[in-house]
Design goal:
By secondary structure, the chain is α/β, with parallel strands linked by helices. 38% of the residues lie in helices and 21% in strands. The protein folds into 2 domains: 3-149 and 273-302, Rossmann fold; 152-270 and 305-332, Rossmann fold, CATH 3.40.50.2300.
């Protein structure tokens, strides 16, 4: 199925708290109401978050759960706010759900501080072993399992792609969350190849719009610059601002998510961010049927996307290399 058809199919799923029932086709009638809690790190109105949760709902349907009265989903949207994450984690744990879907490392940290018994399935976590969430990827060993969104080594591709699409670039501002393990790991991978490409790096924070705007404007004051936007919650929250600043200052920019390019970014390279939510629905289904997180291996991303925006390239006066076009997963006209 093509990605656009897949997203269209997902579009009808409800975003509010909903009630789910195993379909009669599976011949199951649970004796009690099952409760699934979902803690999302993004905002409820963010297109990326909507796509992810729609995929999760679609996945539950594909595994036999349709709207009814035997299971209930409780959603909480933290919008990247640490206090909200802690508050909503406490609210959801207090409900004593049968399983919790946790999006992002901060969500898992807050939940694990409150419970070591309730099953947790995570998505969008970069290093679950390093963070102490699981004993190993093959044997998680506790109440937590899930899906990693990328390996740090993948980040080394971003400066390579930036040079390939804009050979004149000699300086790159790296927008990253330096307070997160993922932010540090991604920047280290970028540093490992930057010097061999003749690119000088300038790290910029992404915690608020003022910090981003001041940093990009100051960086753009000198020639031959480009942007590398690493994967983080703040980068998603400030997507429109970052894309606008890149266009305004004519800075070629590489992103990690397809949604960045569909909103006007130049190029993205990274895992499909929707697919893990479909897989997470399968793990939730298996846990509701009696399996333990300790026995469900952590799985890595399997679909890597290279997405190009030709309109943005033309606006920047860039010629898209034929070799890059040939490798693209998707080209946006």
């Amino acid at each position: 199925m093509k990605r656009r058809e897949f997203i269209t199919l997902l579009g009808g799923a409800a975003m509010a708290t909903s009630v789910l029932l195993p379909s009669s086709a599976r011949g199951q009638q649970p004796a009690r109401v099952r409760r699934v809690a979902v803690l999302m790190s993004l905002a409820a109105d963010d297109p990326e978050g909507q796509s992810r949760l729609t995929a999760f709902a679609q996945g539950l349907q594909e595994f036999g759960w349709t709207e009814g009265r035997s299971a209930r989903i409780e959603y909480r949207w933290a919008a990247g706010d640490a206090d909200r994450i802690r508050k909503y984690a406490a609210e959801l744990v207090a409900l004593a759900p049968d399983v919790i879907l946790a999006s992002g490392t901060p969500s898992v940290i807050s939940l694990r501080q409150l419970t070591r018994t309730l099953p947790i399935v995570f998505v969008q976590v970069a290093d679950p072993v390093g963070a102490g969430f699981v004993e190993s990827l093959a044997r998680p060993g506790g109440n937590v399992t899930g899906f990693t969104n990328f390996e740090y080594s993948m980040s080394a591709k971003w400066p390579e792609l930036l040079k390939e699409i804009a050979p004149r670039v000699r300086r790159a501002a790296v927008l990253r969350d330096e307070t997160s393990v993922a932010g540090v790991g991604q920047f280290a991978a970028i540093q490992s190849v930057a010097s061999s490409l003749g690119v000088e790096l300038k790290p910029l924070g992404v915690h608020d719009s003022g910090e981003i705007e001041r940093g990009v404007i100051a960086f753009a004051g000198q020639p031959d610059g480009g942007l590398i936007v690493t994967q983080s919650g703040p980068a998603i929250f400030h997507r429109e601002l970052i894309i606008r600043l890149a266009a305004q200052h004519r800075l070629p920019a590489v992103y990690s998510l397809r949604n960045d390019v569909t909103h006007g970014g130049l190029i993205s390279y990274g895992p499909n961010s929707i697919e893990p939510y479909l897989h997470a629905a399968r793990y939730v289904d298996r846990i509701l049927k009696g399996e333990k997180p300790a026995d469900l291996p952590v799985q890595a991303a399997t679909t890597i996307e290279l997405v190009l925006n030709l309109k943005t390239a033309r606006a920047l006066g860039l010629d898209m290399p034929p070799t890059l076009l040939a490798r693209a997963t998707e080209v946006i006209e």
